[in-house]
Amino acid sequence: MCEVLKDEELYENNGEIMVSVYFPTYNHSKYIERALKGILEQNTTFLYEVLIHDDASTDGTQEIIRRYQGRHSDKIIAVLRKENQFSKGYEAVAPGMIRMARGKYLAVCEGDDYWCSPNKLQLQVDYMERHPKCKLCFHEARMYDEKNEVFIDNYCWNEKYFKGSAEYSFEDMVRLESIPTAASMYRREILLDMPDLSSPRVKIGDIQKELYATHFGYAYCISGKMCVYNIGNINSYTASQKMKGIEQYNNQHLGMCEIYENVDRATGYEHHESLSERIFHLKQSNVEFSETQMEYLKENDYKVYIYGQGMYGKWCYKKVKEKGLAFGGFIVSEGYGRDDILGEKVYGYNECRGILRDGKSAVYICTRLASVSGIIRQMEKDNINQYIGFCWQVKDREKIKDLYCNSPIFKDI
C-alpha cells in the first residue's frame, strides 16, 4: 500500500527530462529539508525530476515531503509507503523507482545526506554527454560526524587506490571498494537491464550498481567535494549493523562476497581475477576467535582483563563469559571514561598495572590495530607480558606478529 503524489498534467507535459534524482528516505525529518534544498537549488540548463520514496516513516518525514511536493509539483513525484519495504529487502524498492524514472541519467541522494554544490548535476551531465563510454560519474565527498559535530574531508573509500579526477576501470572500482552514494550518476539504461545481484545477508545496493555499470564502459571522478555523507544517524543501515556486533560484521562480509560472486556471473567472468581477489580479502578479514587460547587460559586459572570498551571488547567479553573464564574487568587508556561496562569494573591502565604483573592475569587487547603497538610497548615497559590479540584480521596478523614475541601466552599456544 502506498500513496503517490504526482501532478498528472505537469508529469505528462514537462518536456524531456535529462536527470532523475532518486531520493530514498526513512525517518529523516531531521535532515530532509536540507537535502531537498540541495537538490532543488541545482543550476541546470536541462530539466530534472526528483523521485522520492519514503519507506513508511513515523517521525513526520512524510508531512515534510507533502509540503515540498505541493510547492514543487513540477519537479517532485513522491511515493509514500504505508508499510516498510526495507525490512522486506532493499532491492525490492530500487528497481521500481528506476523504472518510474524518465531521465537519461539517474542521480542518487539519500535523505540524511545532501548536495553542497549547486553545479553538481550540470558538471556531471556535461561530462557524460561528451563521453558516451562513461557509464558512471562521481565526485569526492565530505563526511559529517553528527555525534562530534565535525566535518571530515576524506570519504571512507580505499584511499590507496583513489586517483583523484580520472577514469576508473572495473578493476579500479573493485579496489576502490565504494564511492559516496550521493555522488553517483548513472546512465539509467544500464540499470534498467541489470539483473538482481543482491544478497539476502546484506542490504546493500550501491556496489553492484557501480560495478555492473562500469563493466560496460568506465567510471569517471570529477573534481570537487560536492556532497556531504552523514555518519552518526541512528536510523542508517550502517549504524544498525554496527549495533549488531561482530557476528553481523562477519555476516555482512559474507553477503558482500555473494554480491561480488553475482557480479562475476553477470559480467561473464570477464573480471574474475579482480573479483576473486576482493572476495578472498573479505573472507580473510572476518574476525576470528581462538578456542585454543580460551582453553589454555581456563586450564591454567588465568583471570582475564579486556583492554578496550568498544564493539570488539564487548564481543570478547561475551566469549569470555560463555567459556566460563574468570573475568577481572575492562581496561581503558588514561583520560577515557570509567563508567561501568556491562555491569563490570572499569580500570584506568595506571590503576591496574600492579595487578597485571601477578603472572596469572591475561589481557585481551581489543582496540583498533592502529593503537595496538603503543599499548604493547607501554605494557612491556611496565613488565606486563601476558597479552593476547583476539580479533585481529587475518590479513593483518603477519604485520603484527612480531609485536607478540615476548608474550608467553602467544608463544605457548
Structure description:
This protein has 413 residues and is α/β, with parallel strands linked by helices. The protein has 17 helices and 16 strands. It has two domains: 2-232, Spore Coat Polysaccharide Biosynthesis Protein SpsA, Chain A (Alpha-Beta Complex); 291-412, NAD(P)-binding Rossmann-like Domain (Rossmann fold, 3-Layer(aba) Sandwich). The chain is 38% helix and 22% strand. Strands 1, 2, 3, 4, 5, 6, 7, 8, 9, 10 and 11 form an eleven-stranded mixed beta sheet that branches. Strands 14-13-12-15-16 form a five-stranded parallel beta sheet, with helices on both faces. Strand 3, helix 3 (61-71) and strand 4 (76-81) form a beta-alpha-beta unit. The protein is elongated, with a radius of gyration of 25 Å. Mean pLDDT is 83; it is low at 391-413.
Gist of the model:
The protein folds into two domains: 2-232, Spore Coat Polysaccharide Biosynthesis Protein SpsA, Chain A, CATH 3.90.550; 291-412, 3-Layer(aba) Sandwich (Rossmann fold).
Labels describing this entry:
413 residues, alpha/beta, Spore Coat Polysaccharide Biosynthesis Protein SpsA, Chain A, Rossmann fold, 2 domains, disordered C terminus
Main beta-sheet annotation: 11 strands, mixed
Which structural class should the secondary elements be placed in? alpha/beta
Residue runs with pLDDT of under 50 for 5 or more positions = 391-413
- Structure annotation, total helices: 17
Whole-number total of structural domains: 2
Mean pLDDT: 83
CATH topology heading of the largest domain = Spore Coat Polysaccharide Biosynthesis Protein SpsA, Chain A
What is the class of the largest domain in the CATH system? Alpha Beta
CA-atom Rg in angstroms: 25 Å
CATH superfamily of the largest domain: Spore Coat Polysaccharide Biosynthesis Protein SpsA, Chain A
| DSSP E strands, number | 16
Question: What coarse outline follows from CA principal-axis ratios?
Answer: elongated
> What is the architecture of the largest domain at the second tier of CATH?
Alpha-Beta Complex
Helical fraction equals 25-40%
Strand content: 15-25%
Distance between the termini: 58 Å
